[in-house]
Design goal:
Blueprint: E1 4-7, E2 10-13, E3 18-24, E4 33-39, E5 46-51, E6 58-60, E7 68-73, E8 78-83, E9 92-99, E10 112-115, E11 119-124
Parallel strand pairs: 2-11
Antiparallel strand pairs: 1-3, 3-8, 4-5, 4-9, 5-6, 7-8, 9-10, 9-11
């Protein structure tokens, strides 16, 4: 069973930055694309971004494009979400997920089989 653990969330002022990390237990981490999603209370889970199996390509939701950056370090079995210019609208629980379907850059949560427990990001105005 693949285990994913997010970390790095917290409280930040609008305009500030946070970097989220997602550590995977799978030794074959580099063979899978990864995605980031977020969910605010009472709202649907939404796609944030994704990264290809070897990190050469990234994909972003329009709402975060130009502000967020996804990267990965296969040697550490870790994917990162660097969040800059944070806005109150970014407040949500952020989840990383592993794509086992081969659908690179998919925005659909159903393409991602394994999920972390989530980490809370709160942006104050």
């Amino acid at each position: 069973q693949v285990q994913l653990v997010e970390s790095g969330g917290g409280l930040v002022q609008a305009g500030g930055s946070l970097r989220l990390s997602c550590a995977a237990s799978a030794g074959t981490f580099s063979a899978y694309g990864m995605g980031w999603f977020r969910q605010a209370p009472g709202k649907d889970r939404e796609f944030v971004g994704a990264i290809s199996r070897r990190g050469g390509r990234t994909y972003y939701a329009d709402s975060v494009k130009g502000r967020f950056t996804i990267s990965r370090d296969s040697a550490k079995n870790t994917v990162y979400l660097q969040m800059n210019s944070l806005e109150p609208e970014d407040t949500a629980v952020y989840y990383c997920a592993l794509n086992t379907r081969g659908s690179e850059g998919s925005r659909w949560s159903g393409e991602y089989r394994y999920w972390g427990q989530g980490t809370q990001v709160t942006v104050s105005s």
